[in-house]
Amino acid sequence: MQALAPAEARAAAMAALGKVGLADLALRRAEQLSGGQSQRVAIARALVGKPRFLVADEPCASLDPQAGEEVMALFMSLVKREGVTVLFTSHNVQHALSYGDRILGLQGGRIAIDAPSAAVSSTEMAQLYG
């Protein structure tokens, strides 16, 4: 990523915060943000570089259920609006089945499931992961 002039960096940061719905909180200190807001700031930070691909490792692990749903909905919005591909890991079977286009299930370091999410049942996932 190329370095930006300060004014360009500020404009890019504000645009990214707008994309994640946090432009109105731009002047808040990090410790004043909720877990969900902090996660959305992390996503905004990644968006400044205009990526085509985002990797999110357990993006909802430390969030309450509502904030987790908001973060996943944000990812899906970015996929649709920005054309960004999102690869996420999750131990939440419902998130994987609801938000993933494709499921890769690992067991013992090997791929146990590799299928479109519509072809994978929650029962199959429960059998794999208990």
From TrEMBL:
This is ABC transporter. GO terms for molecular function: ATP binding; ATP hydrolysis activity; transmembrane transporter activity. It comes from Frigidibacter mobilis. InterPro entries: ABC_transporter-like_ATP-bd, ABC_transpr_LolD-like, P-loop_NTPase. Residues 11-61 form the ABC transporter domain. Pfam families: ABC_tran. One of its GO terms (cellular component) is plasma membrane.
